Amino acid sequence: DVKVTQSSRYLVKRTGEKVFLECVQDMDHENMFWYRQDPGLGLRLIYFSYDVKMKEKGDIPEGYSVSREKKERFSLILESASTNQTSMYLCASSPPGEYYGYTFGSGTRLTVV
Amino acid sequence: KNQVEQSPQSLIILEGKNCTLQCNYTVSPFSNLRWYKQDTGRGPVSLTIMTFSENTKSNGRYTATLDADTKQSSLHITASQLSDSASYICVVSARNQFYFGTGTSLTVIP
What we know:
The structure holds 2 protein chains of 2 kinds. By secondary structure, chain A is mostly beta strands. The relative contact order of chain A is 0.33. Chain A is 0% helix and 52% strand. By secondary structure, chain B is an all-beta fold. Chain B has no helices and 11 strands. In chain B, the strands form 2 sheets. In chain B, strands 2, 4, 5, 9, 10 and 11 form a 6-stranded mixed β-sheet that branches. A 5-stranded antiparallel β-sheet of chain B has the order 1-3-8-7-6, with no helix packed on it. Chain B is globular and about 40 Å long. Chain B starts with a strand and ends with a strand. At the A-B interface, loops of A face strand 4, strand 5 and strand 9 of B.
């Protein structure tokens, strides 16, 4: 069964901490994405990557960075966590092109206190 | 502006009843439309995908329709079950970009 695995289901971090959210996929997909999901706002794209060591900003990249050193792994980094980054974070992967859609991970519920 | 709007925002129905969720979009040029189901605390899972030439597609008790002329899609759930309680998200793709609706929250009660 193909999978996108996010390392943590729930995280609680303090304001100012550096936070790493890890995502691993086993489908050999080229494309990987990080979204955050907030009530009433839906999914908003933070960063995406179409290849190893490649990254592109999404709609809301401020306060975040990413790393893709290997094809199967895409990490989201919160350099200095703030309370407004409390959210559900979803990682997704897909083959090239539009038809195949995303395979999502189960999400990480991050709370910044 | 490319947008995807879903209605209603939330819905409560009795187990065994049918319901229909709506998705209207202004995304252009249209490539495909996908419905996802997202259980609470989980990631979204694809239910159906529809391309420009498809009017209807079924996946078990889920039937999606597409009217590309009016830019509307619907997801019909037949004989609802408690496990259908979830958020349903409409996603439209165009030029390798994906546009998400904010979802409809469905609650099925016994």
